[in-house]
């Protein structure tokens, strides 16, 4: 017995169901797509890459993020930090850059400010920022906003060349940028960058 041919209305139902099915699949693909961090890609070019080549100066950092200088008295000599806030699409980041100073410069700063080891940190004036704008950056910390998924960082910087298990979380290592990313669970906690020469094996 031959089956009755499908009516036009039935074909229409099949077409509508098929279109809805493919639209639903496309929506799922879009909803699961991981978007890179546009700001992080920019900071990679203007901060991380120059620092990796040991060419990042305080003036370069100040151009990206206006901030303040802080002097930290220590037994092994003063440390001078530049601190600022960075606004990204995913929230606020905190930047801390340590300036490279000689021992004489450390002692001179301590003396000029009338500080001794063990004293509290001291915020310095804008005029000093202008004076040390040409000083090089020794290291850079970027504290990430809360609940920043690590997969978004991977979408921005690529997969790490090395993964280390830490007492708390993991560390992703990008030696090409002298960069170590500290994770807390599945979220990014901190980016720590130094010149990539520090990653080279010592002979």
Domain module count: 1
What about the largest sheet?
9 strands, antiparallel
Helix content: 25-40%
Structural class of the secondary elements? Answer: alpha+beta
Strand content: 25-35%
Oligomer: single chain
What's the SSE pattern? HHHEEEHEHEHEEEE
Distance between the termini: 88 Å
Q: Overall 3D geometry?
A: elongated
Radius of gyration, Cα only, in angstroms?
Answer: 26 Å
State the low-pLDDT regions, or none: 23-32
Mean pLDDT, nearest integer?
84
Strand order of the largest sheet: 4-1-2-3-5-9-8-7-6
Number of distinct helices: 6
Number of E-type strands = 9
Describe the structure.
- The N and C termini lie far apart (88 Å).
- The chain has 203 residues and is an alpha+beta fold.
- A 9-stranded antiparallel sheet has the order 4-1-2-3-5-9-8-7-6.
- Mean pLDDT is 84; it is low at 23-32.
- The protein has one domain (38-196).
- It is 34% helix and 28% strand.
- It is built from 6 helices and 9 strands.
What key phrases describe this protein's structure?
203 residues; alpha+beta; nine-stranded antiparallel sheet; 6 helices; 9 strands; elongated
Can I get a quick summary?
With 203 residues, this protein is α+β, with helices and mostly antiparallel strands. It contains 6 helices and 9 strands. The longest helix has 24 residues.
Topology overview:
Layout: H1 8-31, H2 38-52, H3 58-64, E1 67-72, E2 79-88, E3 91-99, H4 103-112, E4 122-124, H5 126-131, E5 137-143, H6 150-157, E6 162-165, E7 170-174, E8 179-184, E9 187-193
Antiparallel strand pairs: 1-2, 1-4, 2-3, 3-5, 5-9, 6-7, 7-8, 8-9
């Amino acid at each position: 017995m031959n089956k009755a041919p499908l009516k036009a209305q039935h074909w229409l139902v099949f077409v509508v169901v098929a279109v809805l099915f493919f639209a639903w699949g496309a929506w799922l693909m879009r909803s699961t797509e991981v978007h890179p961090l546009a700001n992080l890609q920019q900071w990679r070019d203007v901060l991380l890459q120059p620092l990796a080549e040991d060419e990042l100066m305080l003036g370069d950092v100040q151009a990206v993020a206006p901030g303040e200088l802080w002097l930290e008295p220590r037994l092994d000599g003063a440390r001078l930090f530049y601190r600022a806030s960075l606004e990204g699409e995913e929230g606020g980041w905190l930047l801390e850059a340590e300036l490279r100073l000689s021992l004489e410069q450390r002692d001179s700063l301590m003396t000029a400010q009338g500080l001794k080891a063990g004293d509290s940190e001291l915020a310095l004036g804008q005029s000093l920022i202008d004076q040390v704008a040409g000083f090089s950056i020794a290291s850079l910390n970027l504290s990430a906003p809360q609940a920043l998924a690590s997969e978004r960082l991977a979408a921005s910087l690529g997969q790490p060349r090395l993964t280390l298990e830490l007492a708390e979380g993991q560390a992703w290592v990008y030696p090409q940028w002298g960069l170590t990313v500290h994770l807390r669970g599945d979220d990014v906690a901190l980016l720590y960058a130094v010149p990539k020469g520090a990653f080279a094996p010592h002979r």
